[in-house]
Design goal:
Structural class: alpha+beta
Number of helices: 1
Number of strands: 5
Strand content: 35-45%
Order of helices and strands: EEEEEH
Distance between the termini: 20 Å
Oligomer: single chain
Shape: globular
Strand order of the largest sheet: 3-2-1-4-5
Radius of gyration: 12 Å
Largest sheet: 5 strands, antiparallel
Length: 70
C-alpha cells in the first residue's frame, strides 16, 4: 500500500519535468502522464511520475491532516 501526498508544482521545464514542493521538500517528477498540469496545481506523484491532479481544497485538507498526525 502506498501513501500519496499531494505536492504543488513550482516549475515545469521544456523536458516536461516538474519541480514539486512537498511541504518544503522539493522533488522532480515527470509530467508525461499529465500534460494538462500547470504551475500551481497540486499533484500526486508515484515512482517519479505525476499521476493525478488533485483539487486544491482536497490537497489542503490532506496536508492539514498529515500535520496533525505528526
Amino acid at each position: 500500500m502506498c501513501l500519496a501526498i499531494p505536492g504543488k508544482i513550482k516549475s515545469i521545464n521544456e523536458d516536461k519535468v516538474a519541480e514539486v514542493d512537498f511541504d518544503g521538500l522539493m522533488r522532480t517528477a515527470s509530467m508525461d502522464m499529465l500534460p494538462k498540469a500547470k504551475i500551481g496545481d497540486y499533484v500526486l506523484v508515484h515512482a517519479g511520475f505525476a499521476i493525478e491532479i488533485v483539487d486544491k481544497n482536497e490537497a489542503k485538507k490532506t496536508l492539514d491532516l498529515l500535520k496533525e498526525l505528526s
